[in-house]
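Hi R.,

Quick one: here's the Membrane-bound lytic murein transglycosylase F sequence you asked about.
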Amino acid sequence: MSDAAVHRLPAQRYRVSLRWVTILLALALLATCQPPVSPMAEIQATGILRVATVNSATTYYLGPAGPTGFEYDLAQAFADQLGVELDMQVVDTRAALTRAVRQGNSHFSVGLTATAALRRDYRLTPGYLDLQPTVVYQADDPTPDDLASLDGKLTVARDDAVTNWLRQAHPTLNFRVDESANAEELLARVAEGDIRATVADARLVQLNQRYYPRLRTAFTLPVTASRTWVFPAREHDALYNRAIAFLAGMRGDAAMTILRDRHFGHAKRLGFVGGQTFARIAEERLDRWRPAFETAAEENGLDWRLLAAVGYQESHWDPEAVSPTGVRGLMMLTEQTAEELGVADRTDPAQSIEGGARYIRDLRERLADGIEEPDRTWTALAAYNLGLGHVLDARELLRQRDRDPDSWINLRDALPWLTQKRYHSQTRYGYARGHEAVTYVGNVRAYYDILLWMTGSPDTEKPESLQREPETSDTAAERALDMNVPAL
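And here's the predicted structure, written out as tokens:
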């Protein structure tokens, strides 16, 4: 083979390789000329909706049955409508919420307040939950009459709607913005006396007053604020338009009313005095009966804290309690119910707790299959208080009026009807004090929420101000629902 032949073969291979490189470059160039995949197309392809949120009593937290929270349930309903799975991504701060959207880690963020700054940089949905910014102080301090009396004493979380209004409406007011804290942390610090006052939404205050009974509300600020979903500022509109349509449909829908009631309907139930009493009695008595509650709950598929909440509502955990009608024991079983359950001694705490647990389980199992949780539990508790027959009567009254009897919010409306002759005359079991059953369930829900928080359930994060050694002084009870009281 000549030298020319030797060098010609590599040249031919080079020309062939160059042709393929040219083709591949052209294909790559064509690919980059295509518009990027839209969020809606990505969601449909992957089957996953990514939503960013923060841990909060009003947004998202892990409860005994798994993820819950108003914002979580609302986002889950939207994911269900889209027919995809919800991936809830929890971040630490408000800035991280917007960053998750801006960087494309989440399709949108929830739990933010609509502001001019957000509207400038992102696309927002119309508001779906109106807020009431309220000034909050501690019971030991004088009640502030106005903002002027809080000059230099007010600390707020980073919320542009509130901070911008304060700066514009009260330009001379001296207040501090804590960039690293959220509203719940500041409420805890007010309760602990670390700061004098803060501003938080009225619903959040009501929820936290159960844990911090010394929190007080002074007045509401005239600030227009509402929750919004935050989307990136891009040209793709399909997902954004679906979200707007979904929220518009939810705003006046019964589903939104049920959702608000589920998360906020019992927030006002206890108030300060009831919360303090609960804390004091929990410190004195709960550790004594907790093992019995845990054992009975495990055997009957219940959360022991729910069972303990019922026991507190019934007797304040007093095994010697007796009602005027002869109902007695820690779980206040009637003689007939105790006999049916095989409880030989109603005043024996272990027997009473075990009998009460079996009775709640039995009531839950006897309810109609269509009643879902948590409505199933609330309905069973109403039957525990009022009797299953009366609850069935109320459900029948709802059916006659074309209202869903499986919804607790509807049943809560119907139970008081049983006191009215025009209604109870139409029922099988007649008159009943339905108002008491409604109050009963509301109280149990409130006590249950407090016990979840007090016993270190993973559903809430404890502020650093509460992470200290247990108190042994006489002031422990006064500190109300401090996580570290010795009994807990």
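The radius of gyration is 29 Å.

Cheers,
M.
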